[in-house]
Specification:
Radius of gyration: 19 Å
CATH class of the largest domain: Mainly Alpha
Shape: globular
Catalytic activity: a 6-O-methyl-2'-deoxyguanosine in DNA + L-cysteinyl-[protein] = S-methyl-L-cysteinyl-[protein] + a 2'-deoxyguanosine in DNA; a 4-O-methyl-thymidine in DNA + L-cysteinyl-[protein] = a thymidine in DNA + S-methyl-L-cysteinyl-[protein]
Order of helices and strands: HHHHHHEHEEEHEHEHEHHEH
Protein name: methylated-DNA--[protein]-cysteine S-methyltransferase
Keywords: DNA damage, DNA repair, Methyltransferase, Transcription, Transcription regulation, Transferase
Largest sheet: 4 strands, mixed
CATH topology of the largest domain: Arc Repressor Mutant, subunit A
CATH superfamily of the largest domain: Homeodomain-like
CATH architecture of the largest domain: Orthogonal Bundle
Structural class: alpha/beta
Strand content: 5-15%
Strand order of the largest sheet: 4-3-2-5
EC number: 2.1.1.63
Distance between the termini: 29 Å
Number of strands: 8
GO molecular function: DNA-binding transcription factor activity; methylated-DNA-[protein]-cysteine S-methyltransferase activity; sequence-specific DNA binding
C-alpha cells in the first residue's frame, strides 16, 4: 500500500484511474480497491480527491490557530486516534539518568499503509514509534538501545500490535487508553503536548505552535522539538507546516508527510 500511496501522490495531477494505480502494485483493480480501502479506511478515488490542488488550497487558506483548538484533545472526531484519549507522560530526570535500569521495554515491527513502523513500549506506554526501511525493519532497535542502554529490551509484537491497529483499523478495540512514555526536555514535551491538540485534517505553522506554548519568538526552537518527536503519528508532528504553506521538513520523508495529511483530510467528515 505504501507503493500505491507514493504513486498516487506523485501522479495526483494526472488523476490516475483505479486500473493504472493497481498496475503499480501488480493487483487486479477489484482486489486492490478492497485491500486499499481496508488499510486506509477510504477508497483510492477518495484519497486521490484529497490530493487535488483545489482541496490543498482550501485547506491552507483557512489556517486554524492552535490557541483556538487547544481543548480538542480527546474529543470525538473522524480520526480513529481521537476516539481514544492520548496521554503523554515524560520520564523523570532520575529515570532518564538511569538509562533505563530496571525498565522493561517490548518492541515489534508492524506494517501500515505508509510503510513499516518500529514500536516500543514500557509499562507506562509507547516510548518509540518510528517509520523504518522495509529492508531494515529492526533499524529502530539501535536508536532505542542508544537511549535506554541499561533497559531490558525484548521482542513483544503481540503487545505492540494493538496501538498500531487502533490507528488504522476502525474495528480495533483497546483495553486501555493510549499512553505515551517519552524522553525529552521540558521545552520539547511542552511542544509535544501542544501537537496533541491539533485535530486531524488541520494544520498549524511553527510560529503558531510557538505562540500556543507561550513562546512566540521561538519558532526555530519549536521546529527542532518537532523534529525530535520520538513517536510518529500519535504525536502528530506531520500537521505542522511553514508559514508560506510549504510542507517544511519531516523526519520520515516529505512524501510520507504529504500522504498522511491527505489521508487524514479525506477521512475527516464533511461539515
Amino acid at each position: 500500500m505504501a507503493t500505491a500511496i507514493e504513486y498516487i501522490c506523485a501522479h495526483a495531477d494526472e488523476q490516475p484511474g483505479l486500473e493504472a494505480i493497481a498496475r503499480q502494485v501488480h493487483l487486479s483493480p477489484f482486489h486492490f480497491q478492497r485491500l486499499f480501502t481496508r488499510w486506509a479506511g477510504i477508497t483510492p478515488k477518495r484519497f486521490l480527491e484529497a490530493l487535488t490542488l483545489e482541496h490543498a488550497k482550501a485547506l491552507l487558506s483557512k489556517p486554524v490557530s492552535l490557541l483556538e483548538v487547544s481543548d480538542a484533545v480527546g474529543l470525538s472526531s473522524g480520526s480513529r486516534l481521537h476516539e481514544h484519549f492520548v496521554h503523554l507522560e515524560a520520564v523523570t530526570p532520575g529515570q532518564f539518568k538511569s538509562r533505563g535500569r530496571d525498565l522493561r521495554i517490548g518492541y515489534g515491527v508492524h506494517e501500515t499503509p505508509f510503510g513499516p513502523v518500529f514500536v516500543a513500549m514500557t509499562e507506562k506506554g509507547i516510548c518509540d514509534l518510528t517509520f523504518v526501511d522495509p529492508h531494515a525493519p529492526d533499524a529502530g532497535l539501535d536508536g532505542l538501545r542508544a537511549r535506554w542502554s541499561l533497559a531490558d529490551i525484548a521482542p513483544d509484537p503481540a503487545r505492540t500490535a494493538q496501538p498500531v491497529a487502533a490507528l488504522f483499523d476502525p474495528t480495533a478495540a483497546l483495553d486501555r487508553p493510549l499512553s505515551l512514555h517519552v524522553t525529552g526536555t521540558n521545552f520539547q514535551t511542552r511542544v509535544w503536548h501542544a501537537l496533541l491538540a491539533i485535530p486531524p485534517g488541520r494544520l498549524t505553522s511553527y510560529a503558531g505552535l510557538a505562540e500556543a506554548i507561550g513562546r512566540p519568538g521561538a519558532a526555530r526552537a519549536v521546529g527542532q522539538a518537532v523534529g525530535a518527536n520520538p513517536v510518529a503519528l500519535l504525536i502528530p508532528c506531520h500537521r505542522v507546516i511553514r508559514e508560506s504553506g510549504g510542507l517544511g521538513g519531516y523526519r520520515w520523508g516529505l512524501e510520507r508527510k504529504r500522504a498522511l495529511l491527505a489521508w487524514e483530510t479525506a477521512a475527516r467528515p464533511a461539515r
